[in-house]
Design a protein that fits this description.
The complex is a heterodimer of chains A (104) and B (342).
Chain A: E1 2-3, E2 27-30, E3 34-39, E4 42-47, E5 52-56, E6 71-72, H1 82-97, E7 101-103
Chain B: H1 3-7, E1 15-21, H2 45-57, E2 62-67, H3 76-85, E3 89-94, H4 101-108, E4 114-119, H5 125-132, H6 136-148, E5 154-159, H7 168-178, E6 181-185, H8 192-195, H9 197-200, H10 204-215, H11 232-237, E7 250-251, E8 256-258, E9 271-272, H12 278-284, H13 286-292, H14 305-308, H15 313-320, H16 331-341
The chains are: A alpha+beta (104), B alpha/beta (342).
């Protein structure tokens, strides 16, 4: 199992999504072999190819269905601070590097 | 490791073992559930499909089907289809004898949501059939060949016993030559495994030799905390604590829920799906609560505690009638046992 270094942050997930992605920007979504669900600490990712788990202490910053559709790295829930956005962008890259996400 | 998150309590299991039937066409001498005839009053198709929906609602990621032989149930493929239509991943533990070309072709169309483990217990016919029955080795090999020709992730699953311990490297080579992977499980003294514990139990020397071999065989899978001390990759594959009632659980053929497949007794019954919902049992069972708070204090001073947290409570229960006492078959005790004998 792996653990994301992402720290728990206050929730702003109830606000809608901003639409900032430009045409041609790479979008990512959950890999078909992976699943994700909300837990008390944040998001729990499951990769059936290992199998392996990833515990991400995201709190409720990202809803569990966020990764079911493709998003550009700057398409994040509205209402986040700049530091939260930066942290989540790094987190998404980490998920991509680890194979939990794939490019659309 | 992420034990602290696990110990915070999960909303549902990551995966679970569902023994859909005790019915089996084989009588393997190490069978954990003494399978043979179906249990009286096994879950109906309607009950099984209802459970699939409950597991979907609970966001269980994967169901590991076992038994008995799952394909003995006439409605098993219907149950599988219900899982797959909801996006639930499945893994089937089968003896392979009922996997013909037509069935494998149907499984291969399951949206890549199915994996299959074919049970074998030796690298040669004599060893395997002595445990599983005459002709089973050849039938299992044929099933593996059929599966290997598809995209279905396939593994040969073997239970480490005194009879096949020396053949595990050869089984690894055999699996590679067939284009599948090898998974090795611990032999536990439950079901017929308890009756044959004395003759099939690996010796401490065999367990240690296997552990060393495993450390250098990174593509071999185990699901056991017992072996998670070997390589970093192996720790990533498994758990360094028992996952029963924390990350996984077991549903028996009649709808009773247990911490794991090796503790399917009244003593460890967490609830019945005929009386409560899956989520109610997961959330409120006293048995599950006791496993979540289980601490093997007698092992805490051990140098390997961080790697196993006391090992397998099921083995401790079956051998010592005490889930709090630590795993009597742990590697540290193997070392001690061998040293004492010298």
């Amino acid at each position: 199992m792996t653990k994301s270094k992402l720290k728990s942050l206050p929730s702003t997930a109830s606000a809608g999504f901003t639409k900032m992605s430009a045409a041609g920007v790479i979008k990512t979504r959950l890999h078909p072999a992976c699943r994700v669900r909300q837990e008390g600490f944040g998001l729990l990712f499951y990769d059936s190819r290992g199998p392996r788990l990833l515990f991400a202490a995201t709190g409720t910053l990202l809803p569990e269905n966020y990764f079911e559709t493709a998003h550009a790295s700057d398409e994040l829930p509205a209402g986040l601070s700049d530091s939260q956005k930066l942290t989540l962008k790094k987190f998404v890259k980490q998920l991509l590097d680890k194979g939990f996400l794939r490019e659309q | 490791m992420s034990n602290k998150y696990v110990e915070m309590g999960m909303r549902s299991p990551v995966n679970l073992t569902w023994e859909v039937s005790l019915g089996c066409n084989l009588r393997c001498s190490h069978c954990l559930s003494s399978s043979g005839k179906p249990a009286k009053n096994e879950m109906t198709t309607e009950e099984a499909l209802n459970l699939v929906e409950q597991l979907h609602q609970a966001k269980v990621f994967q169901i590991n089907f076992g038994g008995g032989e799952p394909f003995m149930r006439p409605d098993f493929e219907q149950i599988l289809a219900a899982c797959h239509s909801r996006g639930i991943m499945t893994c089937i533990s089968s003896n392979g004898t009922l996997l013909d070309a037509a069935r494998v072709a149907r499984l291969a169309n399951a949206n890549r949501l199915v994996a299959i483990q074919v049970s074998m217990d030796g690298a040669c016919r004599e060893t395997c059939d002595a445990i599983r029955g005459e002709g089973v080795f050849d039938a299992a090999i044929e099933a593996v060949k059929l599966l290997a020709a598809t995209h279905i992730p396939t593994s040969i699953n073997t239970v480490l016993t005194s009879q096949n311990a020396s053949e595990i490297p050869a089984m690894h080579a055999m699996a590679k030559s067939l284009g599948v992977s090898l998974r090795v499980s611990r032999f536990r003294p439950s079901g017929r495994g308890a009756e044959n514990w004395g003759s099939l139990r690996p010796t401490p020397a065999q367990l240690l030799a296997f552990s060393e071999w495993l450390a250098s065989s990174g593509d071999v899978r185990t699901g056991d905390s017992f072996f998670s001390l070997t390589t970093q990759e192996r720790q990533g594959l498994g758990l360094n604590l028992c996952g029963a009632a924390k990350l996984t659980c077991c549903v028996g053929p009649t709808g009773n829920m247990y911490p794991c497949a090796f503790l399917q007794t009244e003593r460890f019954k967490a609830g019945s799906l005929r009386e409560q919902s899956f989520q109610e049992i997961w959330d409120s069972s006293d048995i599950y609560a006791s496993f979540r708070s289980l601490r093997i204090h007698s092992c805490e001073e051990c140098q390997r505690f961080d790697q196993c947290h006391g090992g397998c409570p099921a083995v401790a229960w079956h051998l010592k009638n005490d889930i709090n006492g630590g795993d009597p078959e742990c590697l540290e005790r193997c070392v001690t046992s061998i040293a004492d004998a010298v």
